[in-house]
């Protein structure tokens, strides 16, 4: 899968990230998005801090985060925001990675570095123009952030496959996903993404032909 700078804003606005995301209910309270139309600048947002009020709106397993952990979480939330269909910002996503940072699409075993990181977001947005992520559970442990989420959207763009082009059919997807972010000095060194592709393709109306594989032998 091929995935995915504007004005700076105040730290207390939670870098306007939550406004573009669907946040699932937190373990102890319902979570509602922060509505803020301010944009994000890639060079300043990473230094923004998240307030206790911001953290309360997130499905965190533990809200007692250090300042360093809050800064790391702000970087990751910003990357989710700029991956949304209504707020795509490829440059901000790419610039959040370290010089040798890598995005690993773990299920198909593909890795993206450097300029190739810019291919990540458009791929999903082309398939699902309204793509968004529902964050269900977030665990922050120093420089490692683990997130359970769902990728959701409407199949409205063509899918290129080895057998040809699969035409869009307007199907809705809701795909279980697990993301693991590894940061250092405010930059993403490694992002391991596990997407439930079999579920996604099935929801899109693409079913693998097991019979043809069996009949080969």
TrEMBL record:
GO terms for molecular function: isomerase activity. Keywords: Isomerase, Signal. The keyword Protein transport does not apply. Gene3D superfamilies: 3.10.450.50. It holds the Pfam family SnoaL_2. Residues 86-188 form the SnoaL-like domain. Residues 1-30 form the signal peptide. It comes from the Bacteria. This is Ketosteroid isomerase. It comes from Streptomyces olivochromogenes.
């Amino acid at each position: 899968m091929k995935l995915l700078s504007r004005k700076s804003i105040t730290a207390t606005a939670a870098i306007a990230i939550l406004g573009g995301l669907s946040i699932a209910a937190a373990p102890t309270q319902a979570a509602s998005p922060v509505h803020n139309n301010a944009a994000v600048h890639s060079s300043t947002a990473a230094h923004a801090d998240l307030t206790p009020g911001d953290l309360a709106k997130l499905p965190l397993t533990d809200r007692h985060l250090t300042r360093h952990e809050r800064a790391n979480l702000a970087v990751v939330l910003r990357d989710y925001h700029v991956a949304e269909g209504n707020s795509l910002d490829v440059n901000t996503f790419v610039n959040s990675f370290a010089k040798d940072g890598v995005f690993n699409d773990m299920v198909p075993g593909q890795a993206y570095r450097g300029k190739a990181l810019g291919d990540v977001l458009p791929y999903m947005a082309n398939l699902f123009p309204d793509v968004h992520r529902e964050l269900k559970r977030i665990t922050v442990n120093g420089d490692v952030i683990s997130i359970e989420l769902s990728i959701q959207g409407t199949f409205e763009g063509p899918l290129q496959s080895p057998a040809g082009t699969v035409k869009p059919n307007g199907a809705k997807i809701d795909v279980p996903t697990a993301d693991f972010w590894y940061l250092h000095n405010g930059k993403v060194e490694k992002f391991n993404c596990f997407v439930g592709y079999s579920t996604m393709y099935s929801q899109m109306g693409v079913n693998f032909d097991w019979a043809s594989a069996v009949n080969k032998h």
